[in-house]
Specification:
homodimer, 369 residues, CV3147-like, seven-stranded antiparallel beta sheet, six-stranded mixed beta sheet, 18 strands, 27% strand, S-Me-THD-like_C (chains A, B), DUF917 domain-containing protein (chains A, B)
């Protein structure tokens, strides 16, 4: 067991936002929430899933919706507690631990806030090792768990319990309800036993996020040193460095969708890069060639500080660096690729392995580049 | 207590469809459902609400969605039973009676089917004395009851429990879920005590529907005799007789919306009539003048048989008669008119009283006639 204090919270917020690959909400807001919870209820305990009893109830909690809306509808701890407590009531069992669904500025923090409030530990890990836009995009789903019963609440006091026939139906019903609730909701879902958590989760995501956050937030390291450590310690690849020349945004169906366009600087001076996002960055195309796709992580960071920039924070003129990080192996299984591969998102391209080093060719651009 | 057998079922189907004022679903389908339930589970008992214990749980059940979709997604008794049973489970109480929310070909019958299956009586009455398109449009709402907890189920097995802050929010959340479920769902809502039912319901709607059905289905009476009895026994007014020349339909938001246009025959030979509908007929405009509006009943019937025609049954060339019937007094209260008056539906016109006899002038056509 390990305590999360204010210092760790700061690192976690930065690192989780990087792993959020553009989605998962703003790190500043998430950190404020968790800080408030710690100062009110005391420190948060991070546990390894193996420390939990096999029969104990584990409840993941998160915020659902477009990050652009999430930053406008800050949840208070009360709503998250309502969601978790209602799930406990439905199942007739008290939770032994809280879990995060995904890494991200808000969604790594919400579980901390509710854990502090309920005096429960948070498990070191999540269900993605990053962030993804739909709720069936979890290692739980790939490994056969159901997302229901699922509870949704909003800041007004509306409350929904979903029990769907499968996880894509849960996603559909929860998404339309979230849109009706104003574009964002607080959710508790995938209730599971400690045993199921051990068998299905992506481990260590919180520790990894804190490591990444400590590195990127380091005041004594310059850009090149940080980038070098990202490469050697986290298998990062620099995909691009340049200037944002356009951000086209489309929201309305419960997601923040859009396209980022950049022109290159320095080594990338002759190049252009385009990134398509749906809450998270999905696919990166450099000079008409696919250089990275989901499930690998496409992270847009400030070119000087290497601090992560979420999709809602992208603006014209920013100097950015784009790094690729390899995804958790769960996504390279057959069901994993069906669930989050580029083709699921409508891109007729093959996944391009980051592990093969800097890319000079690509399979196809499917006519949409 | 009174038994509903096959003869009564036939009358009820016709009369309830008339009171459905175009909405509430097809009478033939509804009747088949109730017949099947009676033949499997035995006769249905119709009770007066005063026969129920004050403390007993009363559960209204219905189908929600566009009638055009409802006739394509026929529920089986199982789904309705699931909805009612889940509400019982949530409240920790067994129902003592089933209630209908609205009059209509399907929504008068669904409660009968589930009542037969659960061996419970059905109360003689509903919450509208007619049909309306939204779930807060009930005498329960006007008199202060909450629609939640509300259960929605679909034919696939998806299941939702809504607990909203007020009835308009319940409508919004249930409507979006219904659209996501394919446009129609089975619902159990407004759970209440026998005392609350006595204080808030519209009484006698089932008996009235059976009376109307017996009259309209009568084989020995001709058109003029039926019309005369509708006028003397039910305060009906003949608003129009003519031929359907256009039916413009717009669906997609969970409602069947549209406009019916007719040209006159006989005494109405020089006239044209337009009816706007949202599941139910909302407003009738003859020669540019408003001649009837919600909450009064605007019923389109076959010109010869006077049998009711639902909005989804309207087609070019039909010879129709349009009759107006006065609504239950609950709708003429201030909250009643706010809830279902023409202005709620977006028409900038005043309600025109049917009781004043054949209309020769109208307040205004609000620029939309």
């Amino acid at each position: 067991m390990r305590e999360i204090g204010l210092k760790e919270l700061k690192d976690l917020a930065i690192g989780a936002t990087l792993l959020g690959t553009g989605g998962g909400g703003d790190p500043y807001i998430g950190r404020l929430m968790a800080e408030a919870a710690i100062s009110r209820y005391g420190p948060i305990h991070l546990v390894d899933v193996d420390e939990l009893p096999d029969e104990g109830l584990v409840v993941p909690a998160a915020m659902m919706g477009a990050p652009t809306v999430m930053v406008e509808k800050i949840p208070n701890g009360k709503e998250v507690e309502t969601a978790v407590s209602q799930l406990e009531r439905i199942l007739g069992k008290q939770a032994v631990a809280i879990m995060t669904i995904e890494a991200g500025g808000i969604n790594s923090m919400i579980p901390l806030a509710v854990a502090a409030q309920l005096h429960l530990p948070v498990i070191d890990g999540d269900s993605m090792g990053r962030a993804f836009p739909e709720l069936q995009m979890t290692s739980f789903h790939v490994r056969g768990l159901k997302a229901t019963p699922m509870v949704l609440v909003d800041e007004k006091g509306n409350n929904l319990v979903i029990d769907a026939i499968d996880n894509p139906w849960t996603e559909r019903l929860a998404r339309t309800a979230t849109v009706a609730m104003g574009g964002a909701s607080i959710i508790a879902l995938y209730p599971m036993t400690g045993r199921e958590a051990k068998d299905t989760m992506v481990r260590g995501t919180m520790s990894k996020a804190m490591d990444l956050g400590r590195l990127l937030g380091h005041s004594r390291l310059d850009r090149d040193e940080k980038l070098q450590r990202l490469k050697t310690q986290h298998q990062a690849i620099e995909l691009f460095s340049g200037k944002v020349v356009d951000v086209e945004r489309r929201s309305g169906d419960g997601f923040a969708r859009g396209t980022l366009s950049c022109v290159g600087l320095d080594a990338f001076g002759e190049s252009v890069l385009r990134i398509e996002f749906q809450n998270e960055n999905l696919i990166a195309v450099r000079d008409g060639r696919v250089v990275a796709t989901v499930p690998d992580l496409i992270c847009v960071v400030d070119r000087e500080t290497l601090l992560p920039i979420t999709t809602e924070g992208l603006t014209y003129g920013q100097r950015v660096t784009v790094v690729g990080l390899p995804s958790d192996p769960v996504w390279f299984t057959e069901k994993g690729m069906q669930t989050v591969g580029p083709q699921y998102f409508g891109y007729q391209v093959e996944h391009v392995s980051l592990a093969e080093g800097p890319i000079t060719t690509a399979e196809t651009n499917g006519g949409w580049a």
